[in-house]
Amino acid sequence: MLKNVSEFMLTEYSMEDIKFVSISPNAGLISYEITEKGVSRGKEFAAQVYVSSVWAKRGSQWVCLFSQETGTKQPNGV
């Protein structure tokens, strides 16, 4: 895992269409779209990813209980 991370670098990153849905006073769902470019293992990449995550308050901290990402195909085939 550490080797993969050390060979990974983002050069561009943006979040769009950020939405929040309250599940309860101490829990919620966040969804958003990520557009990113970077280099991984010496190769350039571009990705568009839809992300959703469920967060809950545990004591005084918010923790992520679940996170899911779904990649999309780029129009130019990248």
How many discrete structural domains?
1
For the CA atoms, what is the radius of gyration?
15 Å
CATH topology: Nuclear Transport Factor 2, Chain: A
Strand order of the largest sheet: 1-2-3-4
Main beta sheet:
4 strands, antiparallel
Q: Indicate the proportion of strand residues.
A: over 45%
Please, how many helices?
Answer: 1
Which structural class matches the secondary elements?
Answer: mainly beta
Regions with little confidence, pLDDT below 50 for 5+ residues = none
Compose a concise summary of this entry:
With 78 residues, the protein is mainly β. Helices cover 6% and strands 76% of the residues. The protein has one helix at residues 2-6; strands at 8-24, 27-40, 43-58, 61-72.
Considering the chains and any ligands shown, give keywords for the structure.
4 strands, mainly beta, 78 residues, 76% strand, 4-stranded antiparallel β-sheet
How would you explain this protein's 3D organization?
With 78 residues, the protein is mainly β. It has one domain: Roll (Nuclear Transport Factor 2, Chain: A), CATH 3.10.450. 6% of the residues lie in helices and 76% in strands. The protein is built from one helix and four strands. The protein has a four-stranded antiparallel β-sheet with strand order 1-2-3-4. The two termini are 25 Å apart. The mean pLDDT is 90.
Write the layout of secondary structure elements.
Elements: H1 2-6, E1 8-24, E2 27-40, E3 43-58, E4 61-72
Antiparallel strand pairs: 1-2, 2-3, 3-4
